[in-house]
Every structure is written in structure tokens, then in C-alpha cells.
Amino acid sequence: MARNPASISPTAHYTGYTWFAHGLSHPALVTPQGRAMYSALRPLHGLATLTGAPTLQAFLLARHRLIDHLLNQAIAQGRVSQVIEVAAGLSPRGWRFKQQHGSKLRYIEADLPDMAARKRDLLQSAGLLSAGHEVQALDALADAGPQSLSALADTLDKTKGTAIITEGLVNYFDTPTVAAMWARFGQVLARFPEGLYLSDIHLHNANKGAGVQAFKALLSTFVKGRVFLHFDNEVQAETQLRNAGFELAELHKPTRFAAQLNMQMQPGADAVRVIEARTNRPIEL
């Protein structure tokens, strides 16, 4: 059975504080729950670091910064000027990217109604919302209706390249749900001259061994539900993305970008892959 998307929300508090603790977020996006969870897991993180075991923070930071890098690249190349971040939670990305790109970028943070309302209140209270930066209610599993992705896409400029981002979402749903979600994303992005999908995903081939299995069990406990590994390897995931309507699909290993990100990768960084999928082929010069 697919998870109820509301059950994902506890992770938003922890990841929100993780971004803040590493200089990637604003104090307004810190919650008491996030601070408490981060403090509670600190001894376990310290022990894992000493023993060389994978940690939650390693893959959280690797995926977040690599998604940032790929999105910045697409914006700099003029391919994207509209972004929908699905299940944005307490992600600071909208605030940071609007600071960096200003009026050149329209950024929509989308989440279930309760989470969206909370995020909007936090940003507004801190004066962090600016023109072209919005928070909207969205049900990522809806095919139609006022809270569907299709309806939200109707409000965008059809002449501008558009990106959809999901971070910390797909591994909490079963494979048929993810396949349907990707097909939905592909159909929506095909409406625009350039379509880009960025996401993280965990695969079987990158999550083997006793240490990683213990780590996966911890993660499942942390998110209060099962963590799904849908594909054995990158090729299977890329094939599913192409079946969903993406013309190009590639899964990136974070450690390959260590130099570009100026980031020392810790054990666990390569437990995750970052998806870069496009609905339009790049023009060869």
C-alpha cells in the first residue's frame, strides 16, 4: 500500500534543522520538533562518524547540495525560470534561490494544505516571501482537481522552462505510486519548452551490507513507515523515467560532484542518487 503523504511530515522537521545546522537555511524555518530530533540523533551520528558507518546527514546534505547545483546550472543556462518544489516541507531552497536569482525566477513551494499553511506563515512572519515566491497547497497524488499538479501548472507561463523538484519523497511510496507520479510530472513538464525533473532516490545496489541495512531500518523508524527501494540499479530507474515521458534521464552519484560542490563527502553520501530528467532534448551546437 502507498503511504499516506501526511506521514512523511516528521522528516520535514529534522531535515529543516539539518539545513540550518549546516548554514543552508534561515532561523525562521527551524522548528522545536526539528531541534529536538536533531539533538536526539546527535550521539548516534557521532558514533557512526567514528566507526565510518553511513549517516543520515551525509546523504541529506549530498542530495540537497547536488539538487541545488543542477538547478542553478539549468537557470544559468537559461533553460529554467519557473520551479515547483513538490512536498517542499521546511526546505530553504525557495528562499535561497529567490535571494540569488530575484525577479528572473518564479518559485512555488507546494505541499499538503496543513504543511503549506505552516510554511507560508513561517516565511511571511520572517519577511522571507517576495514577489514570485509562493506557497501553494498541492496533493502530489492527485490527477485532477484544484490541488493537483496539473491545476497548479495552469497558472504558470507556458513559454518558460519549468522544473519540478521532489526531495525526500519518492522512497516513501510504493513503486506503482511513484511510476504514476513520474508520469504525471512528465505530462505536466511536456507543456513547457523545457522541462526538468530533479529528485533524490535510493536504489538496491547502493544500499547493501549489514551497516546499510541497519541504517535503512533506522530511517524507516525515523519516518514512521517503510522505506521503499523501487529499483535494483540506475538503468532500471532511468528506463522507468523514460517510460514516464522523459526524453533524457540520468541518475547521478553525489561523490562524482564533490569537487564542483566543494564538499567533503562522508560515508552514506552515495547511499542516494540524484535524478536529472528532461522532457526536451538539449540542442546540439
Walk me through the structure.
The chain is of the alpha/beta class. Helix content is 43%, strand content 14%. The chain contains 10 helices and 7 strands. It has helices at residues 9-21, 32-51, 56-76, 93-101, 113-125, 149-153, 175-189, 210-222, 234-243, 258-261, and strands spanning 82-86, 106-111, 133-137, 162-166, 195-201, 248-252, 273-278. It has a 7-stranded mixed β-sheet, with helices on both faces. Helix 1 (9-21) crosses helix 2. The longest helix is centred in the N-terminal third of the chain and has 21 residues, at 56-76. The chain is globular. The N and C termini lie far apart (46 Å).
Key structural traits:
seven-stranded mixed beta sheet; alpha/beta; 285 residues; globular; 10 helices
Short summary:
This protein has 285 residues and is an alpha/beta fold. It has helices at residues 9-21, 32-51, 56-76, 93-101, 113-125, 149-153, 175-189, 210-222, 234-243, 258-261; strands spanning 82-86, 106-111, 133-137, 162-166, 195-201, 248-252, 273-278.
